[in-house]
Every structure is written in structure tokens, then in C-alpha cells.
Amino acid sequence: MLAGTANDQLVGHPVSLTRATDTADSEARGEVDDGRVNPVEALLEATTRYLTALDGVTEEQLREPSQLPGWTRGHVVAHIALNAHGFARALRGTRTGEPIPMYDSPEARNADIEERASGSRDELAAFNQMASLRLAGELRLMKALATIERLPGGVVLDAAQVVELRWREVEIHHADLDIGYLPSHWPTPFAAYLLETAADDRSQEVSLTLHARDIDKTVLVGKGGHGVAGSAGDLAWWLVGRGSGEGLTSTRPLPELGSWK
Length: 261
Fold this sequence. Notes:
Layout: E1 8-10, E2 13-15, H1 23-28, H2 39-55, H3 59-62, H4 73-96, H5 106-117, H6 121-141, E3 147-149, E4 156-158, H7 162-176, H8 188-201, E5 208-212, E6 217-221, E7 227-230, H9 232-239, E8 249-250
Parallel strand pairs: 5-7
Antiparallel strand pairs: 1-2, 3-4, 5-6, 7-8
């Protein structure tokens, strides 16, 4: 359990996520203390780690390849910021009564990433700070029953899913930057959560029996199958389509996995 309240700082900028009196909205914000990990606190901590690391990235490093094929570190950093911006504007639309999707279109999303990726280190850092703060403010005001669209006429998301989805974006893409933050650095609750989530996502693709040695947990993919063992972070990293199974041991050759969402 992550201790304390949902109040935290994003690299020197105070962000207060006050607790709601309405139980449903409090649960949506991850503010109900029942022994589970508090998603809002986990997200804020992940965001702080990412923004602190970003402060140490040089202009030259931003132009170098990331772990994602075809994307430089600048592309990844731009995407992380635009994702926060998209969630913030969509959540704001649920409050103002003027629904707006996260992205205007796939083409607009891709064009925005390309444009932002070419910005300077200072511009990208400032945009990430601003977008993270705006999203933190919208999460404070979020209503559990609201829904948002990722694209016009596309997938509809419950607003309550935003914290979880953003948590994934920050933790996974921080590792994608290849600047020293590894799956082994993920907090145990996140590694365990992502392992179960990714295993479920792959259930129609492969059948495996996974064993996370560090948390002594066995997870079935599909109906279960030959064994693959490693840390929760390394298993999850492989399941989300990264790497080639580094750190894993398997009773048979690892199967080829398709791209992950």
C-alpha cells in the first residue's frame, strides 16, 4: 500500500488531489483506502520519477532511438505529454458539457507527435510538466460515471479508467526511453498489475504458465501451457511486446508475440 494522501508534487509544482465525500467518485480517483494500492498516488509517484528523469535527458539523447521501432526518445516524450493533454481535455469536456475526444483523429495524433518530437529539450520538458499538471487537476474533479472517447466515434472509456491507463503509459514509456529506467525498477504493485493485465490481453493468442519468482506468483495465459519464469517486471515487459525475453527462462522456445495495444 502506498502510504499518505493523494497530495504530491510533480517536480516542484504542488498538486493537490483532495478526497471526495462521494464514495463512487473517491473510488474512481483511487482515494479509498481499503488495503489496495492507491492508483492516484501510484500515478503521481510514477509521474514524478519520469519528470525527474526527463530533466536529466540531453538534447542529443532526445534525437537518439528509443526502445520503440521508428521512434526517437523525442517521439516517446512527445507522446507521453500528448497523452496527458488528451486525457485532460477529454475529462474537461465531461465537466463543461461539451464532449471532446482525446485526439481529433489518428492522423492529427500522429502529426502532433511528429511536430512536438522536433521541439527542443526545454520545450518538451515544459510541455510534459504542463500536461501532467493539467491532468492532475482534472483527475481531482473527475466524476466516476463520466465517459470519454479516445477518437471521435471510437472506443468509449469510463473516466474511472483514466488513472489506470495513464499509470501504464507513464511507467511503460519511461522504460521505453532507454535512459536507465528498467522493468526491474517498476514498483512491485505495478509490475504485478501489468503482468496480470498483459497476460489476460494475450489469452487469445498463446497459452502459457508464467511464474514471477520475485513475488512468488503464478499467472495463466489462456488455458495455461509450458512454463516461463522470471521477475514480474521482465515477464510483463515481454508480454507487452518489448525485448526478446531477456531475464526469462522457459521450458520451450518463447513464442512470437504480436504487437500489444
